[in-house]
Design brief:
Distance between the termini: 16 Å
Largest sheet: 6 strands, antiparallel
Structural class: alpha+beta
Radius of gyration: 18 Å
Oligomer: single chain
Strand order of the largest sheet: 2-1-3-4-5-8
Number of strands: 8
């Protein structure tokens, strides 16, 4: 397991750089699943990427989880590759507020969108014995030129939280346990 965990840690770092480069090139990021595999025939490692580009599919998270990701894993396995880790990543809004009665009421009434929020990148990584979810704050850097605000921003990712095997029970949502 220790060797697998090191491989997955390297995959996490690689994905962070891949996502940053992709985000900077496209000024956004489609939700995507990446499968880190080992090809026993060629004695090499691969990363297979499936971006979710269809806007209707983006909104149907159960379809993504139960159909697209499962079919993608079957296709990868059928090609003879051994899955080491499945990664889901997506932009999201993170609402972070004090636990007050007024804020709980806003959340319970569906008024949470009026609360302060931060743009984040959520990345979950699931392997046989390794489960991690990392949340990065997306920090956009824009510059002002003679012609006004520059439209192209660059981003930096700043880690907000990381949940691992030790607190895997705190990881909830439909995009967990993707390895199985």
């Amino acid at each position: 397991m220790e060797n697998t965990e090191k491989l997955i840690d390297g995959f996490i770092e690689q994905q962070k750089h891949f996502i940053t480069d992709m985000f900077n090139a496209n000024q956004g990021l489609p939700p995507m699943v990446s499968i880190f595999t080992q090809d026993p025939k060629k004695d090499c490692f691969n990363v297979n990427v499936l971006p979710i580009l269809d806007s209707e599919q983006m909104n149907d998270k159960d379809f993504i989880r139960d159909v697209l990701i499962e079919d993608f894993k079957k296709m990868v396995r059928k090609s003879g590759q051994k899955i080491i880790c499945v990664n889901w990543c997506s932009e999201a809004w993170m609402y972070k507020v004090e636990n007050t009665k007024m804020n709980r009421e806003k959340i319970n009434n569906g008024d949470y969108k009026k609360l302060p929020r931060t743009e984040v990148l959520v990345m979950s990584f699931d392997g046989k014995d390794v489960h991690k979810r990392v949340i990065y704050e997306i920090k956009r850097t824009m510059s002002v030129t003679e012609n006004g605000l520059e439209q192209n921003a660059t981003i930096e990712l700043s880690k907000v939280t990381e949940e691992t095997n030790d607190n895997v029970d705190s990881i909830d949502g439909r995009f967990k346990n993707l390895f199985e």
